[in-house]
Amino acid sequence: AADPLKADPLLTESSVAANPFAVHGAKSPVCNVFELSAAEDRIRYEAAWGVGGKTLDGHLPHSSTLGDLGRHIRAQAPNPNSRFYLTLLDSEIPVSPLQVEQPLAELM
């Protein structure tokens, strides 16, 4: 890799391993977050895993990122070690693995 890429914190071995999101073209399951709201001291989410699949829900701190949400969802998934496509609310476009550090609060 080029020197600037080697220095990118999102591309370190540990960051890549922790990133729950699939890259474009990968054969991976889809999870759609259909509810994302601010509760008292946290962010609440509801999601559907797969087509007509399992409903997942939970709460995260207000300081959470898309990566935190993805890891929280992945822990509840049928295969908690797999990467997946995450779509948010009314979007059909999956979250990019490069958005892993985006704050959830920006999406509400």
Helix-strand layout with pairing:
Blueprint: H1 3-6, H2 13-18, E1 30-38, E2 42-49, E3 55-61, H3 66-76, E4 85-88
Parallel strand pairs: 1-4
Antiparallel strand pairs: 1-2, 2-3
What's the helix count? 3
Instruction: Output the radius of gyration.
Output: 14 Å
**Uncertain residue segments:** none
What is the CA–CA distance across the termini? 36 Å
Biggest β-sheet strands, sense, barrel: 4 strands, mixed
What is the N-to-C succession of helices and strands?
Answer: HHEEEHE
Give the percentage of residues in beta strands: 25-35%
Mean pLDDT, as a whole number? 87
Strand order of the largest sheet: 3-2-1-4
Helix share bin: 10-25%
**Sheet/helix structural class:** alpha+beta
Overall form: globular
DSSP strand count:
4
Could you explain how this protein is built, in words?
With 108 residues, the protein is α+β, with helices and mostly antiparallel strands. The chain is built from 3 helices and 4 strands; from the N terminus they run H-H-E-E-E-H-E. The protein has helices at residues 3-6, 13-18, 66-76, and strands spanning 30-38, 42-49, 55-61, 85-88. It has a 4-stranded mixed β-sheet with strand order 3-2-1-4, covered by helices on one side. A hairpin with a 5-residue loop joins strand 2 and strand 3. The termini are far apart. The mean pLDDT is 87.
